[in-house]
# Entry
Amino acid sequence: MSKIAFIFPGQGSQTVGMGQSLAEAYQPSNDFFLNADKKLEYLLSKLIFEGPQSELTLTSNAQPALLTTSIAIMEYFKQSGITPDYVAGHSLGEYTALVAAGAFTFEEGVYAVHKRGEFMEIAVPNGEGTMAAVLGLDSDKLETVTNEITESGHLVQLANINCPGQIVISGTRKGVELAGIKAKEAGAKRVLPLEVSGPFHSELMKPAAQKLRAVLDDMNITDAKVPVIANVSASEMSNALEIKEKLIEQLYSPVQWEQSVQKMIDLDVTTFIEIGPGKVLSGLVKKVSRAVNTYAVSDEKTCQEVMEALKEGTR
# Structure
């Protein structure tokens, strides 16, 4: 029997004005923006709706902004009556998925990712770490390259295994630079430096992970009501204790997105619905398999379109 997965985007998908039209038209969605302001004790909603983009893009703002917007969109989409068999999110999006799965409240989630963003920003002095996207090289070959550079004294590792031929590496600025050169020598088509504030999903994030543990310890994490496909293991998780440990490990470990999508396909998921701004994850899913259906829900219009398309498919 075919199944449905809700997937939630990570940092990088944020844009000024996201979710605003929905918040103005639908009070239950607007309530999430108001509740985020109250929980964080600053006007996150004003920043989301009015910008500036440079401030919205700061990790400590972008993460709660994306979680809030995605959950607000999901609240409107609930009217469709469509429910997921599995949920997953890319990096930060995993927290959104866990809110959607009932593992912790929205308010706890938005506070946790705000603090997570702060910890990530200060874990490594500005300019000392970075990330780059490597296109056209498989993960085994790229991991050989990153291991070689790390052993030479310049830490670099795989950070996001997004889809066939698209992997992000992370580490010290020198490590990423040297790995990029060697990756091209090994056959990579392109190496694209990313505009990020730190070396996310690398061992350099371990100090941030230690601080994050204290925040997660204070949260009331419960068993998920819907299975969540974990970034770290690309396997199902629903146990509260496992969720906490996986979230800590996720901060300094690779995001196994390609494997997560494949896992859901193996679990008979045939329809992936991306809930949140942008269509990045929908594109990645299609690169893993063109045999599945993908939809992106970002506002009232796309919500209605997806509702209709899914209803048509069931007739």
